[in-house]
From TrEMBL:
EC identifiers of the protein: 3.1.11.6
Compartments (UniProt record): Cytoplasm
Protein name stated in the entry: Exodeoxyribonuclease 7 small subunit
HAMAP family per UniProt: Exonuc_7_S
SUPFAM superfamilies: XseB-like (SSF116842)
Broad class of enzyme this protein falls into: hydrolase
Reaction it catalyzes: Exonucleolytic cleavage in either 5'- to 3'- or 3'- to 5'-direction to yield nucleoside 5'-phosphates
Family affiliation: Belongs to the XseB family.
Gene3D superfamilies named among the record's database cross-references: Exonuclease VII, small subunit
Subunit structure: Heterooligomer composed of large and small subunits.
Role description: Bidirectionally degrades single-stranded DNA into large acid-insoluble oligonucleotides, which are then degraded further into small acid-soluble oligonucleotides.
Length: 79
């Protein structure tokens, strides 16, 4: 049985979403299975969005605690 979306890591959710998209794009899935996969994908997307929003809130709180107003773009040396 597949794990509930809320129990998956962000990376695992993305990986499963990629598999669902690939399966649906190939069209070798019955209509019922396609609908089930689509529904699962929607749940994974919503959960992933929630995780991203929570991460953004944590970053904002940490920045506020440190007195940082804005983030600076990351500059990779040599680019």
């Amino acid at each position: 049985m597949a794990k509930k979306p809320e129990n998956l890591s962000f990376e695992d959710s993305l990986s499963e979403l990629e598999k669902i998209v690939t399966d649906l794009e190939h069209g070798d899935v019955s209509l019922d299975d396609a609908l089930k996969q689509f529904e699962r994908g929607i749940k994974l997307v919503r959960n992933s969005q929630n995780k991203l929003e929570n991460a953004q809130q944590k970053v904002a709180v940490l920045m506020q605690e440190e007195g940082v107003d804005t983030l600076k773009p990351y500059d990779v040396e040599g680019e």
